[in-house]
Every structure is written in structure tokens, then in C-alpha cells.
Amino acid sequence: MFETILKLAEKYCEDPSLELDRDTSVVMDMELSSMSIFSMISELEDSLNIRIPERILLRVDTLGDLCDVVESLM
Fold first, then answer.
1. Strand partners, 62
2. What are the φ/ψ torsions at residue 10 (nearest 5 degrees)?
3. pLDDT in tens, 5-21
4. Nearest in space to 52 (alpha carbons), one of 34, 72, 33
5. What is the spatial distance between Cα 24 and Cα 66, in angstroms, rounded to a whole number?
6. Are the C-beta atoms of 69 and 56 separated by less than 8 Å?
7. 3-state per-residue secondary structure call for the chain
8. Residues with Cβ < 8 Å from 48, sequence gap 6 or more?
9. Which of 14, 32, 54, 59 could hold 36 in an S-S bridge, CB 3.0 to 4.6 Å?
10. How far from each other are the two terminal CA atoms of the chain, in whole angstroms?
């Protein structure tokens, strides 16, 4: 599952030199705008046919957190 999230994150990350891993912060490291985060999450939800509740999404900081949330919903 992490590989799927990683490929999607690479698509949205504007810094090609940034090495993405499970500890990469979506906001602090990737510096995504709220609109980019929303788009990335929407694309992930659509591709996996899941919905991530906002109350859970608010606790996601890293790509690893996002992976854990997705795995728990599948």
C-alpha cells in the first residue's frame, strides 16, 4: 500500500530532490497547499474506492500515517 501512496505523493510533490519515505510530513516536508492535499487525498480515495473521514484525516501528518489510515479502512 505504501508504494501506491508514494507514487501519488511523488506526483504532487513539487520538489523532485525531496526523498519521500514513511516519515515525510505532507505539510512540513512536501510543503503542499491545502488544495493540493485535498486533491491528493481525493485521488487516493477514488482510486481505492474508500472514504477517509475528516476527523481521522486531521490526525495524519506523515505519509506513513496516511498509509496506516488507508490500510485500516480497507
1. 25
2. -60, -35
3. 999 999 999 888 999 99
4. 72
5. 11
6. yes
7. CHHHHHHHHHHHCCCCCCCCCCCCECCCCCCCCHHHHHHHHHHHHHHHCCCCCHHHHCCCCEHHHHHHHHHHHC
8. 4, 70, 74
9. 32
10. 10
What type of residue is 14?
E
Residues 6+ apart with CB under 8 A from 21: 63, 64
- The model's pLDDT over 30-66, given as tens digits with 9 standing for 90+, comes to 988 889 999 999 999 999 999 999 999 999 999 999 9
Separation between Cα atoms, residue 64 and residue 26, nearest integer Å:
10
